[in-house]
Amino acid sequence: MALLEVEDLRTYFKTREGEVRAVDGVSFSLEHSKMLGIVGESGCGKSVTVLSIMGLVQTPGRVVGGSAVFQGRDLVQLKGRELEDVRGHEIGMIFQDPMTSLNPTLTIGTQLTETLRRHLGMNKDQARKRAVELLEEVHIPNAARRLDDYPHRYSGGMRQRVMIAIAISCNPKLLIADEPTTALDVTVQAGVLDLLHELRSIHEMGVIIITHDMGVVAETADDIIVMYAGQIVEQATALDLFDRPEHPYTEALLEALPQVEGEGIREGRLRSISGRPPDLLDPPPACRFAPRCAYAGQDDCATVPPDLREIRPGHWVRSSHPTSERAAAPVGAR
Amino acid sequence: MSEQMDGASRASTNGNEPLLVVKNLKKYFPIKGGAILDRTVDYVRAVDDVSFTVRAGETLGLVGESGSGKTTTGYCVLQLLKPTEGSVRFAGKELTTMSRGDMRAVRRDMQIVFQDPYASLNPRMTVGDIVSEPLLVHKIGNRKSRRSSAERLLEVVGFNPDFINRYPHEFSGGQRQRIGIARALALNPSLIVCDEPVSALDISIQAQILNLLKDLQNEFGLAYLFVAHDLAVVRTMSDRIAVMNSGKIVEEGPAERVYTNPTDPYTQALLAAVPIPNPRRMQERRAERRKHKDVLAEPV
Ligand SMILES: Nc1ncnc2c1ncn2[C@@H]1O[C@H](COP(=O)(O)OP(=O)(O)OP(=O)(O)O)[C@@H](O)[C@H]1O
Ligand SMILES: Nc1ncnc2c1ncn2[C@@H]1O[C@H](COP(=O)(O)OP(=O)(O)OP(=O)(O)O)[C@@H](O)[C@H]1O
Ligand SMILES: [Mg+2]
Ligand SMILES: [Mg+2]
């Protein structure tokens, strides 16, 4: 059985202008010890997807449908105390900005031992000993001495390591990291990503990593989900997604990426995608990418919503014009 | 194009001197101490003895991590910050000792595009007024000619000229960045300092802006001092690259050479840290990064 099974998840925000369909029918599953990357541009619903799974959606948002079954229990149905026990205990979480998640008025040690004592019932000495081990595990030098420092004495990368230490302190089976390195410098990011990779193996955790950076998923994830306008548009293993992207959006996104390696980079132009992502108050009626798609022609792209279908084993795509099913040239001139 | 666009009036240098020559530039910010913070106890050496050149029509990419001094360098070039020491020569003239009046004329010829397309545009001005404001400030043309300049500038950056009566909030991030670029072009500058011009934008929009900047450079012979922390973005834009670390340029050279054959240990570590969108390289990249662990040890 999968570690996490998300089925037709829908989360809408009721606003004055109307209903924002932030997450609109998202389904995926995560196996034990696997790392799943969710990528997509700003506003496509990555954060709301995981917040929905964790029961953390704030009003005016509401999970209006679907389920998220984790180790036999549907998290969407859980309430209050039960949910809090799962959160932070069986599922660890890390967010983008470690400074907003750490309390600046408490020492690192206090924040680490608090979790251990509350969720695992350790006494003070046990918790302190374990806290030092955890800091060592996330490679904080001089861990025993640094335990009594306040967060401001730690660098940005070290704070994010502390967040990871807190998130894994109760040996969760699932770790959710929402843009864990977006606020960090690239050299610090590399260290944090390598750490996540290492801990995933040691602790046999399933990991969901959310990012807008194609490079980050390529270097961390086993499987990748590409989201667009509240929906999954493509899902595959990392290798197959980068080798043979099927969705016109994924394909265009990969070609729009500036490269650090290769020839003729300076002289070349990047592929750009015209227009911008739709307003989720009033998304295109059928295929949500159709208005920007190079292949949407006179056919039913604007009238019949494409299903997410398995185009080859393990590779899912939501498009009537996947790469492997179309003639070489796009419709019309670009 | 019009009188502002023809390039005839643009600054030129005599002989072979590059358009911009920066020598031994320093910018130290005082750190205050004492009971009422009235004493300078130390300095932040934000820019610490930096030298580089930018030729007409060329792009110099300035990369480095947060706090390395990129923005401060750009501001000192434009004299938006007064350098502590060193020389900035632009179009053959020394800027650091120039009078305010003379500087005003030079300003026309060097512009800046900022990172944040939201914060850098006045929300109460129409797009037309924003784009043509530099013309008004420098008392160029009349109402009517400024209006037609605004329309033309909007067209240059790929907009419908009818947009001049709209307001910034009606536009997306990428569109606002285009407005910022149109404004920077208004006075037909020969140098634009681009400070993280695409960092706030999504990939698909980022590509539009980078292509636009390349097109404008080809069309108008612009020189860019292109400041960014994203090494892939800088590579795609730059003829030459300067890598900054802690206020110093640690390596400088043709983009191709710096990226394929970096000699400085910090540059090597920086390049090894960039995540590459190719999962087949994951193992090899991770091994490569382990070699640079010492260079990158975080401050304890
Ligand atoms: N409180 C809210 N009220 C209305 N709409 C909201 C609210 N919170 C989120 N949304 C909408 O839900 C959509 C999904 O947002 P989400 O935060 O999941 O995006 P994301 O993919 O995580 O983007 P980013 O990369 O910028 O973090 C967005 O279009 C956003 O406008
Ligand atoms: N006005 C100021 N007063 C004091 N220190 C400053 C000031 N402006 C910048 N600094 C310091 O100078 C150093 C260089 O800052 P700068 O903004 O130039 O870096 P940067 O390379 O542009 O970084 P980023 O990538 O984060 O934009 C930093 O340590 C910064 O804190
Ligand atoms: Mg998000
Ligand atoms: Mg800066």
Short characterization:
The complex is a heterodimer of chains A (334) and B (300). Chain A is an alpha/beta fold. In chain A, 31% of the residues lie in helices and 23% in strands.
Specify Rg of chain B, calculated over alpha carbons: 20 Å
What percentage of amino acids of chain A are in beta strands? 15-25%
Q: Give the H and E element order of chain A.
A: EEEHEEHEHHHHHEHEHEEHHEE
Can you tell me the overall shape of chain A?
Answer: globular
Rounded mean pLDDT score of chain A: 92
Helix content of chain B: 25-40%
| Overall pLDDT confidence of chain B | 90
The computed structural class of chain A is: alpha/beta
The main pleated sheet of chain B reads as: 6 strands, mixed
> How would you write the strand order of the largest sheet of chain B?
6-7-8-3-9-10
Number of distinct beta strands of chain B: 10
Q: How many runs of DSSP E, i.e. beta strands of chain A? A: 12
Overall SS class of chain B: alpha/beta
Per the principal axes of the C-alpha atoms, what is the gross shape of chain B?
Answer: globular
> Largest contact between protein chains?
A-B, 49 and 49 residues
Largest sheet of chain A: 8 strands, mixed
